[in-house]
Amino acid sequence: MKVVAETLGVARSNLIDRLNSRTKPRRRYYKAQDAALVPLITTLVAARPTYGYRRITAILNRQLRPEGLAAVNHKRVYRIMKAHNLLLARKYTERPEHVHDGKVIVMRSNLRWCSDGFEFTCWNRDIVRGAFIIDAHDREIIAWRAVVNIGISGSDIRDIMLEAVERRFGDHRAPSVIEMLSDNGSPYIAKDTQIFARQLGLKPCFTPVRSPQSNGISEAFVKTLKRDYVQVTPLPDAHTVLGLIGAWIEDHNDNHPHSGLKMRSPREFIAAQTATA
């Protein structure tokens, strides 16, 4: 027995207990305070069924802090969600090979804005298409437009450019040049759009052809929009959907935790930056 124990690198007493079936099965780790967290976590998962345990942790702590309660570690939330079958199902997919040209993220707000479009179909076959502008640093959706059964035009893009500048600076021109990154869609590359952008203090920049991932921040928001809002909301017709998109955008800006923002929402991140400036 001694030789076997030394070979396996375990104690002889452990081997004897195993031979005599005296080892105790491991029990699930449990804290008495977990019972108070279960209903809170269950409610959050029901309201946001596409959120994983890290985002649920961020939202939960956002509720606990105003009540003077201690924040909860994400590992604890994972353990509770696993015990109650609340975790998201894993998806196993092959990652395509992407070639990233350049770095999209910047070190502060209003250095680079990104823009892209989205599209989805309502239950009555109406097609909603839209476009938006997002800051590459703080991830806030600054401006957006949506249309029904037609394409986004150059005029729509110019409107959201102007709206974004006015919202950020309260003027019709940015105080310093801001890069405006987009794909090579016709509304963006139109001569009128490029001239108008420069008049607003924006510098048009375009991703390489057939490389949409080079505008990854915009692509990530489109994925979030479809996963966290479109796929879990009834979409009977375009009239109903157009009334919902604004609330989706506001919820994203106010509440959606971003891993790149240390699990804060865009406006939480902006507020923190402003407080430390």
From TrEMBL:
* Superkingdom of the organism of origin: Bacteria
Matching SUPFAM superfamilies, A to Z?
Ribonuclease H-like
GO molecular function terms noted in the UniProt entry: nucleic acid binding
Where does the UniProt annotation place the signal sequence?
A: none
Q: Where is the Integrase catalytic domain?
A: 92-274
InterPro entries in the record, alphabetically? HTH-like_dom (IPR025948), Integrase_cat-core (IPR001584), RNaseH-like_sf (IPR012337), RNaseH_sf (IPR036397), Transpos_IS3 (IPR048020)
Kindly give the Pfam families that the UniProt entry links to this protein: HTH_21, rve
Q: Which GO terms describe its biological process?
A: DNA integration
| Cited PANTHER family | INTEGRASE CORE DOMAIN PROTEIN (PTHR47515:SF2), LOW CALCIUM RESPONSE LOCUS PROTEIN T (PTHR47515)
Q: Write down what this protein is called.
A: IS2 transposase TnpB
The record lists the organism as: Yoonia vestfoldensis
